[in-house]
Model the fold of this input.
Amino acid sequence: MRIRIAVLLVAAALLAVPAAQAQEWVINGSIDSGPEFDLHTVSLIAGQEVTATLVCAFDGVSRPLDPVLSVFRPSNPNTSDTALADYYNDDGFGTDDYPWGVDCDAFDSSIVIFTADETGTYTFRADGFGSSTGPYTLTIGAVNTWVSIPTLGTVGFAALALVLAAAGLVFLRRRRHA
Ligand SMILES: [Ca+2]
Ligand SMILES: [Ca+2]
Done:
């Protein structure tokens, strides 16, 4: 019986569902005119480590957009000017910067890396430098840096209930034999 209980306990531990450690958003869009920019919002939690890239996408011929990425924190809602951004990058994600970076027809893709210091809605602004236009892919990754306590899923709870019931039966049987 002890071995069975141990097996059930191990099963319950394996069925425990750990809290999400990483999230990723991938957004495809296009800048179609010089003045155009796109705003994308994502909810982040304070403490998350965020890496966002804005890559010039292939339009069938080449990669015409020279991306510029800026990020506005929840307490900074004025997204009208990249000069007001909390984080800004133009050419930090080319092959000269990272082996997996992406060069565009002219200049490079963009990358922004930061630790969220506020919980709330962050705005990611996708721009073309100057009057450059073209399709893009915005990828936002957020990783939890804290250690999360696993929580039991429904099946885990059922397994735990079985373990407790089995332990109760063993206890009752022993008392009857005594
Ligand atoms: Ca650029
Ligand atoms: Ca570069």
Observations:
- The longest strand covers residues 22-31.
- Strands lie at 22-31, 37-44, 49-56, 67-72, 87-89, 110-115, 120-128, 134-143.
